[in-house]
Amino acid sequence: MDWTLVISLIFFGLLAIVLDLLFIPGGVLAILGLITVISGVVCSYVAFGAAAGNIVLVCTLAVSIVAIVLILRSRTWRKCALNAEIDTKMNEFDEDKIKVGAVGETISRLAPSGKAVFDGDTVEVTSAHGLIDENSKVRVLRIDGNKITVELAD
């Protein structure tokens, strides 16, 4: 066993981990890469002794940390990350206008959730009994926090 095998095992193991992080999701390649890196370090201990094994281990950890930092700072990683801002709000409504028994009109199909208008306030509602078509009259059955449950009004 020589240094070429040890360096090759560590290099290809780290390469497999990087490929898994950036291009091939799932973790299988990363696990195989980790096993390969560990095999390279173990081979260095077995073939060249504790001193050489310790040096290989420290160098491998240093290269791994540098690689992780470079990957996280790369443009490729920024393209993979979600940068969208979430500006949606919870279902906010005037509790004085919308009470149990209030009648409104759907502005979207409730399948089983959708939007309805009650006294000019547009809110997200959930149908208690199946699907309700757009522009149908609905009645509020119950209000649990910000969840409004409705049924088809007669």
Description:
The protein has 154 residues and is of the alpha+beta class. The chain folds into two domains: 3-80; 103-152, OB fold (Dihydrolipoamide Acetyltransferase, E2P) (Beta Barrel), CATH 2.40.50. It is built from four helices and five strands, in the order H-H-H-H-E-E-E-E-E. The protein has helices at 3-22, 28-48, 50-73, 75-80, and strands at residues 103-106, 113-118, 121-127, 137-144, 147-152. Strands 1-2-3-5-4 form a five-stranded mixed β-barrel. Strand 1 (103-106) and strand 2 form a beta hairpin. The longest helix has 24 residues, at 50-73. The N and C termini lie far apart (85 Å). The relative contact order is 0.10. The model has no long low-confidence stretch (mean pLDDT 87).
List keywords for this structure.
154 residues, rod-shaped, 2 domains, 4 helices, single chain, alpha+beta, 46% helix, five-stranded mixed β-barrel, OB fold (Dihydrolipoamide Acetyltransferase, E2P), 5 strands
